[in-house]
Specification:
This protein is of the alpha+beta class. The chain has one domain. Helices cover 18% and strands 38% of the residues. The protein is built from three helices and nine strands, in the order ααβαββββββββ. Strands 1-2-9-8-7-6-4-3 form an eight-stranded antiparallel barrel. The longest helix is centred in the first third of the chain and has 17 residues. It is globular, with a radius of gyration of 19 Å. The N and C termini lie far apart (59 Å). About 5% of the residues have low confidence.
């Protein structure tokens, strides 16, 4: 019986560890590149169908340690009543938006430069892919571990875990 346990540990455990789906830096960078919006007549519209949308009901975006970004590829219907969106307008740069469809009339906070404009840094540490959110002065305001990506023809879902709970970016809580 001990030989069977030993064989199980020696052969099956490494196989299970190798079969885990690791998220690479290049995979995240490719998704960001595909999420970039194109300017029309020198302008961009916010939010875009390519925006990453995060549930912000009851300020969940700012309070939760685990966030799920959704990009609905098949329709423009919003997945959440209130949401924060990241709209990538160029490589590694996005605009943070805050939208509410809970009540009529629908509302969106006015985007302000430079307060709502952020850079993103993607890097790898010990087989984990990280995303840092940086202000224009290159100060890190938020940091995430990318733990899951689900990408198909209908939607993109990215699960992020905060590495620390930040202060509100613009005191929006």
């Amino acid at each position: 019986m001990k030989k069977l346990q030993f064989l199980f540990i020696v052969f099956l455990l490494p196989f299970l560890l190798l079969s885990q789906n690791k998220i690479s830096k290049s995979e995240v960078q490719k998704i960001i590149k595909e999420s970039q919006i194109q300017k029309k007549n020198g302008r961009i519209s916010l939010p875009s169908i390519k925006s990453w949308k995060f549930n912000n009901t009851d300020s969940l975006y700012f309070k939760s340690d685990t966030l799920i970004a959704i990009q609905n590829k098949t329709n423009t219907q919003n997945d959440f009543c209130e949401f924060i969106d990241w709209t990538f307008y160029r490589k590694n740069a996005f605009i943070l938006g805050n939208t509410s469809y809970c009540e009529e009339p629908h509302s969106r906070l006015v985007t302000k430069y430079p307060e709502d404009y952020f850079y993103i840094a993607v890097y790898q540490i010990e087989n984990r892919t990280m995303i840092d959110m940086l202000r224009n002065d290159k100060m890190i305001v938020d940091s995430f571990n990318v733990i899951e990506i689900e990408n198909n023809d209908e939607f993109l879902k990215i699960k992020l875990v905060r590495r620390f709970i930040p202060l509100p970016y613009n005191n929006k809580i």
